[in-house]
Amino acid sequence: MLKEKALELLKENDHGERVRQAGLLQAEAQGRWQELPSRFQLQGALKSSRGSPIERDFLVSARLNHLHVDFLIQLALVHRMVEPTAEIIDVAAKMLNVAVESILLKEQLANSGTGLIWRIAYYCLPAAGIICLYLLKGPDGDPQGTVSMPKLIQDLSVLVAQIESGSLVLVEDPNHALLAGAAQTIQSVLARVLPGNLRSSRHAQSTYAELGQSESSLNWQPWYDDSGSLDFDPDFWSNLAVHPALLSGA
């Protein structure tokens, strides 16, 4: 019900009213979370939690579901997807971290088969998509400095490694093309960040100033601005793969 309400926010054309409704929905979602007994709330690292595989899997599911509601709310408040807000970046970072840890500890969870693939597609990829947009935005992408860059890089790297290892999804699996395409694009983003092209604030600022004035940047249209879709599907990842910041480093 909460997720349906979050998606309904997108139909509200008045931004002020959308913000008002988002605030009410956030309060409702937080209230629902607080109503859960503390033993069912994953507050720290999954590896530090105790319980049976079924109980630990529930902890992950409950936490991801709560974060996903907040993610959808923040997604509805973003003006342009190419410029993610600090709020959605923060939620995406948390959601990615929980999902990635559940991948690493899949042997200790009850639902580590088909449910794990669904969890990656439903939670990991949307979070990773927002974080990739943030990384490509440059040093001004998170003015509040609420996220840890090393942690983001680590979680994205682990996600790519797990997908490319072939241990998560077989080639004949229906989700293989989506996950493989996403992993390839994420790897391109990481390759753009890790060499230091975006590590130097001064260099990054000049790089993005140049990109902002370039014809390729002006012509590039993110999938959201084109279609209004909120699906982080193959179209999103193929579109992101031709982001000017990636092509400029080729």
From TrEMBL:
Keywords: Dioxygenase, Oxidoreductase. GO terms for molecular function: dioxygenase activity. This is Taurine catabolism dioxygenase taud/tfda. It comes from Teratosphaeria destructans.
